Amino acid sequence: MAPPRIFITGGTGYVGGTVLHSLVTRHPEYSITALLRNVPESFAELYPNVRIVHGDYDSADVISDAVSKVDIVIHNGNSDHEPSLNAIIKGLVSKKETSFLIHLSGTGVLSDWRDTKYHGKLNPKIWSDIDDIDEIWSRPDGELHRNTEKILQTANQQHGDKLKIAVMSPPDIYGRGRGPGRRRSAYFPFFWKDIMTVGAPFYAEDGTNTRSFVHIDDLMELYLKVVEAAAAGGEGADWGKEGYYFAATQEASQIDIAKATARVLEARGAIQQDEPVCLPKEQVAGFVPYAGLSIGTYLYMSNSRVRTDRARKPFGYQGKRPTLWETLDTEIADALED
Ligand SMILES: NC(=O)c1ccc[n+]([C@@H]2O[C@H](COP(=O)([O-])OP(=O)(O)OC[C@H]3O[C@@H](n4cnc5c(N)ncnc54)[C@H](OP(=O)(O)O)[C@@H]3O)[C@@H](O)[C@H]2O)c1
């Protein structure tokens, strides 16, 4: 069988860059093309066999044309960007042959951040990517990533016979990335920035709100399995409505994260106290303002708890990398460096 032709986006980002690096390293036989708007200086040296298409996510014609020449698209970088996703689908369905689309979304779509009842408190709901699949595909408008998941849902209904879609829905990711650009995740760099304002790690209410986590290298094992299944014609993985993959391996409450972070920061001499502080909800909600959304509420006061059921059976997926607690010191050291 000829090696698969792959088109990847977000190859300079934390997730997309690590996917690119993992594919090149594990599957040098794959024929890979990357969409890049900024080409890192080291790119050609690091990845001499990866072809580059110059463009950004709004270069609809460039994207549609490029994906019409490949078998598999791995779309990372901005899980909410509609024009790029529409351009990818348009290009893929223009082909006669079956195509595969592996789209990065995230468990933010299941977060209870808009429900004030659970701000700073434990929500008992744990989502399964098998048992709750109907509910997952029925999330209300306005939830994070729902706009693009709706586009994928329509594509599944209209083109499911020739376009096989997998949604990768990781929770918060930790661990160092391996790509040619950004290698840091989101949670700890944001948390450190807000800790500097407050003077200590923090939580709201009783801080029992809980989120799932995954190490970037565990997530990559799942990506590789799904890409390998696509390369084998789809065999061995779920696609379409059932092709929805959580990747979580553990969970942590905000108060436990704040306590552990305080100990690490105090030991590093970065703060004066080794205990976190409880802040009013209104103050936490004001952190990380972004496009009119209160990302502070989402990051520090919400729950998004998931159970990774789908990947377990076919792929034997489980967390094998160091836990969040084992990695925390490095994670925080990296955030301090930025
Ligand atoms: N990190 C997490 O914990 C996590 C967990 C679940 C879901 N997610 C979701 O995954 C997505 C990616 O996260 P990330 O942490 O990998 O982000 P990131 O490190 O900021 O990477 C973004 C990537 O997308 C590219 N990009 C962004 N906008 C573009 C545009 N308009 N045109 C061309 N390229 C563009 C960037 O290219 P440049 O280098 O040129 O800027 C970069 O390669 C986000 O939507 C996030 O919500 C993240």
TrEMBL record:
InterPro entries reported in the protein's UniProt record: Epimerase_deHydtase, NAD(P)-bd_dom, NAD(P)-bd_dom_sf, NAD(P)-dependent_oxidoreduct
Domain named NAD(P)-binding: residues: 10-110
Pfam families in UniProt: Epimerase (PF01370), NAD_binding_10 (PF13460)
Xref: Gene3D superfamilies: NAD(P)-binding Rossmann-like Domain
Domain NAD-dependent epimerase/dehydratase, residue spans: 148-237
Name by which UniProt lists this protein: NAD(P)-binding protein
